[in-house]
Amino acid sequence: MSKKGGFYESVEYYFDRAAPHTGLPHGLLDQIKVCNSVYRMNFPVKLRDEVKVIEAYRVQHSHHRTPTKGGIRFSNHVNQEEVMALASLMSYKCAIVDVPFGGAKGGVKINPWEYTPEELEKITRRYTAELIKRNMIGPSVDVPAPDYGTGSREMAWIYDTYRAFKGDEIDAAGCVTGKPVTQNGVRGREEATGRGVFYGIREACNVPEDMKKIGLSAGTKGKTFVLQGLGNVGTFTGKICQEEGGMILVGVGEVEGAIYNPDGIDINDLLEYRKANGSMLNYPDVQSFGKDQREIALEFECDVLVPAALESVITINNASRIKAKIIAEAANGPVAADAEEVLLAAGKLIIPDFYLNAGGVTVSYFEWLKNLSHMRFGRMDKRFNQGRMMDMVNLIERMTNRDVTNEEMKIIARGADEIDLVRSGLEETMITAYHQIREVMVMNPKINDLRTAAMVGAINKISNDYMSLGIWP
Ligand SMILES: NC(=O)C1=CN([C@@H]2O[C@H](COP(=O)(O)OP(=O)(O)OC[C@H]3O[C@@H](n4cnc5c(N)ncnc54)[C@H](O)[C@@H]3O)[C@@H](O)[C@H]2O)C=CC1
Ligand SMILES: O=C(O)CCC(=O)C(=O)O
Fold it and tell me: Which Pfam families does this entry report, sorted A to Z (predicted)?
């Protein structure tokens, strides 16, 4: 079995730990585990009158299904092993939520906060051109998306660069997801990862016997939580946990430090304050900790800890000080495998990353489908469904001799918009996947944690493809 400290080592360890429970032959397991293609590039970009050489990667972990899929990260911590770990997680993630892609991931080794938008555009376009040259991007080949340090703006540049090279491809918009809604994106992708994280936490909290084991009552309402990272994933997770789950945010960690208030912090107010002041540190009524103590957020007293920044933040060094009863892995790889051992021994419930943050790729799948169909979800049936529901309400009115008001009619007989359908598809996906994972754990008394159960499920699904398709030649 692999060692357990680093990110890629941890992912390999989690795979090796689950593999014996599948009963599959070693050769097949080896094929599922390895990264199929690793592409490292160095390309020049002219910035501020100087040539800068940029190091970048695209890793396609598994070609058992194509296209491959996964985000692009801009960070100065990017390295080959990190991208390999992230690409591997993508394959297991897609399998868990039945999204029909192989896993991939890209990384560009830059600190995006040090560059102007014009400079970032140059880097993004050149990186895309490198992928096009190698046939490593395209709607049926490999479809990137946002990850740490990138968002819809970068995805629009990628799409536009792809179009410049492949303007005659009718499905060109499907070459990348997470695009702005006005540029062939889908409503709901921006919030999707955070919304999926909330659905996953809610499912876990709704199982009374699991909550009893960790000394909590069932349901999300009133549960306290701490967020690490106020980027795309952290922000939407925080808002939706507060607004739809009735949960209470008590602490936050960001690059400038950490804040804590056991009575609760309103996330919307905090985000406004941080935007206006460039920092959250002097937010009213909180205990503040400076930049050098920012990791203390992970150790705050709370029911649910949500790491939503980077990998390997819970290590063997701080694991024994984590007080949360539930660790909800919104980020990819926040818990190193040796730290996980400590957390599980202390009876914590860990909701694993490659299930919990799969909302992003799920809605990316919806966006890709929208791009291939060239039509907004709901366009064909919204008015038809609305008409049928109005007929039904009119019938009930006649039968009961009671009139509904215009306001009531608007609520009852509303046809679904694109955002309603996307959220509904995402919710269904996260609920179904959670109970599939839990079922693996319940049915196998030797499996005591959700990560191993999820990994067993993922490996079994991927192996089914290999076994039914055979191995060529
Ligand atoms: N964007 C997406 O759709 C998805 C993202 N993820 C994962 O979620 C995590 C976060 O990604 P995004 O929110 O997209 O990135 P982002 O770039 O939007 O935000 C990340 C935030 O983390 C903060 N941060 C960095 N280091 C920190 C530290 N030591 N302590 C506290 N905060 C810190 C940054 O200042 C930034 O605000 C990553 O692990 C990513 O791989 C997973 C699935 C999908
Ligand atoms: O939306 C996608 O295709 C992938 C998002 C991603 O990079 C991830 O889930 O880690």
Answer: ELFV_dehydrog (PF00208), ELFV_dehydrog_N (PF02812)
Range of 158's domain? 37-186
- Residue 238 sits in the same domain as residue 339: yes
Find, among 148, 181, 189, 175, the residue nearest to 360 by Cα: 189
The answer to the question of residue 334 being in a domain is yes
Question: Do 151 and 254 lie in a common domain?
Answer: no
332 three-state secondary structure: coil
Q: What is the pLDDT along the chain (473 residues), one digit of tens a residue?
A: 555 779 999 999 999 999 999 999 999 999 999 999 999 999 999 999 999 999 999 999 999 999 999 999 999 999 999 999 999 999 999 999 999 999 999 999 999 999 999 999 999 999 999 999 999 999 999 999 999 999 999 999 999 999 999 999 999 999 999 999 999 999 999 999 999 999 999 999 999 999 999 999 999 999 999 999 999 999 999 999 999 999 999 999 999 999 999 999 999 999 999 999 999 999 999 999 999 999 999 999 999 999 999 999 999 999 999 999 999 999 999 999 999 999 999 999 999 999 999 999 999 999 999 999 999 999 999 999 999 999 999 999 999 999 999 999 999 999 999 999 999 999 999 999 999 999 999 999 999 999 999 999 999 999 999 999 998 89
Q: Which atom of ligand 1 is nearest to the CA of 330?
A: 8
Mutational test site, ligand 1, from 110, 233, 362, max ligand atoms within 8 Å of CB: 233
Instruction: Please tell me if the CB atom of residue 231 comes closer than 6 angstroms to any atom of ligand 1.
Output: yes
> Would you say the CB of residue 258 lies under 6 angstroms from ligand 1?
no
CA of 271 from ligand 1 middle (Å) equals 15
Angstrom distance (rounded) from CA 258 to CA 77: 22
216 Cα to the center of ligand 2, angstroms: 31
Whether the CB of 228 sits within 6 Å of ligand 1: yes
Query: Which of 175, 22, 47, 199 is CA-nearest to residue 118?
Result: 47
- Dihedral-angle region of residue 339 (phi above 0 means left; psi in -120 to 50 means alpha; beta otherwise): alpha
Q: Domain boundary at 156, 186, 216, which?
A: 186
